[in-house]
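Notes from hallway chat w/ T.B., transcribed later so I don't forget. T.B. wanted the structure written out for a chain they're using in a teaching module, and asked if we could keep both sequence and structure tokens in one place. Agreed to drop them here.
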Amino acid sequence: MRCVIARFPFDLTRNGVVESMKGVEPEEITGESVTIGGHAYPVKQVGQVVTGQDRRDFTAGEVVRAMTKLGFTCGGLAQGSAPAHDLDPVRHASAALGAPTG
């Protein structure tokens, strides 16, 4: 399937994506994810591996659209699985500035 990611055209196939991701250790998921070969990967990680582009050059949405068209399951961060520091942004910011958090 032909898709455009970061203004560049790519001919991606489901099998090609699976092969590209074999042996790649999934990073921590903090946003959108895609399930490939029984593993959930951050979409930015998948985009980088399959396109060879820097993650800053494309959006998660571009990769989600491409992976969805190829038949992969994509989703956001599961409810309740956010890192603890993201649950209270004020305390997290205070701690980062060195202020007491108690």
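Follow-up for T.B.: The first strand starts at residue 2 and ends at 5. Might be a good example for the class.
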